[in-house]
Amino acid sequence: MPDTEPTLPRRDLTHTPRKIIIFGATSGIAEATARIWAREGASLFLVARNSDRLAAVAADLKVRGAALVDTAVANLDNVEEHPVLCARAVEALNGLDVAYLAVGILGDQPTAEQDTNHALQILHTNYTVPVSLLTWLANFMVKQGHGTLAVLSSVAGERGRKSNYVYGSSKAGLTAFLGGLRNRVDREGVHVLTVKPGPVKTSMTAGMKGSEKFADPDKVAAEIAKAVDKRTDTLYTPVIWAPIMAIIRAVPERIFKGLNL
Ligand SMILES: NC(=O)c1ccc[n+]([C@@H]2O[C@H](COP(=O)([O-])OP(=O)(O)OC[C@H]3O[C@@H](n4cnc5c(N)ncnc54)[C@H](OP(=O)(O)O)[C@@H]3O)[C@@H](O)[C@H]2O)c1
């Protein structure tokens, strides 16, 4: 007889209708991902601050096949409301398999260079808000022994550039937080997916120079849904951004600081 306890197999949720909370559910990338999960018959709890947009997204997801769609209107900047909001979502779904965080703002880099409040607002929404949500969600998932935390960070967090370093630093912090969280909860059966999209065609990038060449949100969403199923740690999407960022990270700082990026 072996003297070790048998290890329980991890729950395979790949083909089971899942219970999913989406924070920032009116995001272009999140909406495209939710459409995939709705087609699979998932139960969805959607959180966003624009009630009209949220109602439209919820109605669309119901038509596409979601088993259940519930919603909460919330300004997620109000971090003190997060515990009640998360508990309400878990109760409505009668459980939780995946939490997907898409909340974020690009902000305005020139304004952030002059106005500290604007710089701090970018850091708050993109870093403090996810940290607050993820702390509650990770503890809940550790307790139940399974779950996936899928979070939209960005390639912008890999290296500070003058054109968007305040936004980039918020995503760098988020990526580091996710790495540490994964290191803590992986052994507890909880999966942490860090998503690093390159530029994607959504309302965040509308009107930017070259935006017509940005990635399609449906393509990015398909890669994210697959990464959730495969329990990937870090996803560059579209995948071309993995080698691009490897090159960008390798440029020596004495050269990088002189580039017009
Ligand atoms: N698009 C890109 O090129 C790109 C690239 C890399 C990473 N990302 C990241 O991907 C995520 C999704 O972005 P997206 O491209 O889909 O852009 P988006 O459509 O502008 O989505 C951002 C979402 O965050 C929500 N949000 C912002 N502040 C909020 C708050 N205080 N409370 C509640 N909701 C709030 C927005 O709601 P409102 O509509 O009410 O403002 C919106 O639904 C973001 O974290 C972004 O940083 C995007």
Can you offer a commentary on this structure?
The structure is a single chain. With 261 residues, the protein is of the alpha/beta class. The protein has one domain (19-256): 3-Layer(aba) Sandwich (Rossmann fold). The chain is built from nine helices and seven strands, in the order βαβαβαβααβαβαβαα. It has a seven-stranded parallel beta sheet, with helices on both faces. Strand 5, helix 6 (165-185) and strand 6 (190-197) form a beta-alpha-beta unit. The longest helix is centred in the middle third of the chain and has 29 residues, at 116-144. It is globular. The protein starts with 18 loop residues before the first strand and ends in a 5-residue tail after the last helix. Residues 1-13 have low confidence and may be disordered. The structure holds NADP nicotinamide-adenine-dinucleotide phosphate. NADP nicotinamide-adenine-dinucleotide phosphate is lined by residues 24, 26-29, 48-50, 75-77, 102-105, 125, 152, 154, 197, 199-200, 202-205. NADP nicotinamide-adenine-dinucleotide phosphate binds next to helix 1.
What distinguishing features does this structure have?
seven-stranded parallel β-sheet; 9 helices; 46% helix; binds NADP nicotinamide-adenine-dinucleotide phosphate
Strand arrangement, largest sheet?
3-2-1-4-5-6-7
Q: Which strand-content bin applies to the residues? A: 5-15%
The tally of strands reads 7
Give the uncertain stretches in residue-range form. 1-13
Gross CATH architecture? 3-Layer(aba) Sandwich
Counting H and I runs of at least 4 residues, what is the number of helices? 9
Distance between the termini: 63 Å
Main beta sheet: 7 strands, parallel
Bound molecules: NADP nicotinamide-adenine-dinucleotide phosphate
